[in-house]
Amino acid sequence: PNMRWMAMNVSDLTFADSDFDIVLDKGTLDAIEGSPKLLRAAVFEASRTLRPGGLFLSITFNDADARIGRQLKEAANWQDCSTETFERTSSGTAGSNRFFVHSCRKP
Questions:
Q1: Which pLDDT does position 1 carry in this prediction?
Q2: How far apart are alpha carbons 14 and 17 in whole angstroms?
């Protein structure tokens, strides 16, 4: 009801610093991980727009070593990172049946 849909460059967001309590990534970082410079800029922007104590959530097929260790923590300062693993139970699905929800808090 009170949502606004906006399009902008993920590596150069127009939001103010500390504008959000939660930032949710579902597929954006996966789509740009082939460009390390763009990925770092996007993660930095997510951190910049989070208030202190805000939560970054990332839903991905990348495990914690890849998403948190090699992507998130290389681009910004995070604390209290954790990962939940989920399995799809349907048969006949192409690709991986395991996905991850990573959460990190901005100090």
A1: 72
A2: 9
